[in-house]
Amino acid sequence: MKAPDFSYFEAQNIQDAIKYKSEDDEAVILAGGQSLLPALNMRLSSPSCLIDISKINNLNEIKIEGDFINIGALATHSDVMNNDLINEKLPCLVDILKMVAHAAIRNKGTHGGSIAYGDPAAELPAFAVAMDAEIVLSGLSGQRIVNAKDFYRGLFETDLKSDEILIAIRYPFLSHNQHLIFDEVCRRHGDYAMAGLMARVELDKSKINNLDLVYFATGDKPNIAQNTAKLVIDDRYDYEKLKKSLASEIDFAGDLNSSSEMKLHLATILINKILNKLER
Amino acid sequence: MSAKNSVNISFSVNGENFEDVTVPTRQHLADYLRSQGLTGTHLGCEQGACGACTIEMDGVAVRSCLVLASQANGSSITTVEGFDDEVMQKVKNNFLKHNAFQCGFCSPGMLMTTKEIISSKKKLSRDEIRSEISGNYCRCTGYQSIVDAIEESINEIN
């Protein structure tokens, strides 16, 4: 359980980090390191160099920018949970972060790091997709913005180019009739989920007007279940029908904790749990 | 910027300054601390799950197996050896009183997490205490005695 050898570069500013990264394809960005370091310790990854961006100033700001809440890449999960703006404007994120690991890990793990790492079992990538967030990337040719749903390409694979660094995530505000409801099934509190669901619901009185279902810990990336969402709007909860629909639109990938069939079952019952939460 | 496999860093541990020490880039902080004789910080899983290596870095609890020694540059660290203030003395006495350990492997991490609970100034229920220490594994006690010790510490100090 010791990391392989790599070199280490402490970046003082974003330009430094971008330049260094553009010159070395095998270099990896280190922010909080709470997913990267276990992967290194278990030798699942062997980068040539870690570019430590954690000392860069002003990359952890949380602020309102126009119609968005902008979370700087280096804001830790604890920073986000304790932030007044987030508690007021995006309280669902605070509840979600309570499910992310444990306090000592949330003190170090960063929002941008979790989004950029793209672990398919992590909550935040699915949250960003369900919220239709914008991901701000900075590279040699300047900044660009990618929609979260276009950012995730495959297993730990994102739209980040070799010279780019994720610098912020921008979440649109939820209007009064929109709700982000989530649930997950895991063996122990703080573990990665066996299956989890982020649902963005738009209500017209008590009728569901619009619904986005985004699953995590089910496949290779945050999985959007568009057809299933339509079925839920039309006839609410019908286990067999929804299960069939989910099976046809998500390629469920089993892991050590649960088989693909188990994940399909959990994904189906999660819809019922979400609907029950909605009624409360 | 050649590929170097060691870096020089400066930081403080329990008030003692470590100036310009050379550390291998791949070495995590727990291994470095233990190599300096600070063996109170225990290593269980080395993947962030067990909590035995929890230390305080710049005022917050972190896993020292998930922090590289090189990342500690410029920071201020407290390990279990540095728990000599009045508050932590009371916590340690409560752990002794309630027999909140058997083998002692998890104790440094448990004490560190307790320190963070106490400094949050929150009055926690037993369920909430269990939730707060959910990131620290104990394989001996069944946690009851640890929750007892933390509960009494909160009542006594906050």
Radius of gyration of chain B: 16 Å
Radius of gyration of chain A: 19 Å
Distance between the termini of chain B: 50 Å
Sheet of most strands of chain A: 5 strands, antiparallel
| Uncertain stretches of 5 or more adjacent residues of chain B | none
How many domains of chain B? The number is 2
The CATH architecture of the largest domain in chain A can be given as 2-Layer Sandwich
Number of strands of chain A: 14
Task: Give the largest interface.
Answer: A-B, 36 and 36 residues
Question: How much helical structure, as a percent, in the residues of chain B?
Answer: 25-40%
Low-confidence stretches of chain A: none
The helicity of chain A comes to 25-40%
Total DSSP helices of chain A = 12
**The first-level CATH class name of the largest domain in chain A:** Alpha Beta
Structural class assignment of chain A: alpha+beta
Using the coordinates above, name the CATH class of the largest domain in chain B: Alpha Beta
Q: What is the percentage of strand-forming residues of chain B?
A: 15-25%
Write a brief structural summary:
The complex is a heterodimer of chains A (280) and B (158). Chain A has 280 residues and is α+β, with helices and mostly antiparallel strands.
Summarize the SSE layout with pairings.
The complex is a heterodimer of chains A (280) and B (158).
Chain A: E1 7-10, H1 14-23, E2 27-30, H2 36-41, E3 49-52, E4 62-65, E5 68-72, H3 77-81, H4 84-89, H5 91-97, H6 103-106, H7 111-117, H8 123-130, E6 134-139, E7 142-147, H9 148-151, E8 152-154, E9 157-158, E10 165-172, E11 178-185, E12 195-204, E13 207-216, E14 223-224, H10 226-235, H11 239-249, H12 260-279
Parallel strand pairs in A: 1-3, 2-3
Antiparallel strand pairs in A: 4-5, 5-10, 6-7, 6-10, 8-9, 11-12, 12-13, 13-14
Helix pairs in contact in A: 10-11, 11-12
Chain B: E1 6-13, E2 16-24, H1 29-35, E3 54-57, E4 60-63, E5 76-78, H2 86-97, H3 107-119, H4 126-132, H5 144-157
Parallel strand pairs in B: 1-5
Antiparallel strand pairs in B: 1-2, 3-4, 3-5
Helix pairs in contact in B: 2-5, 3-5
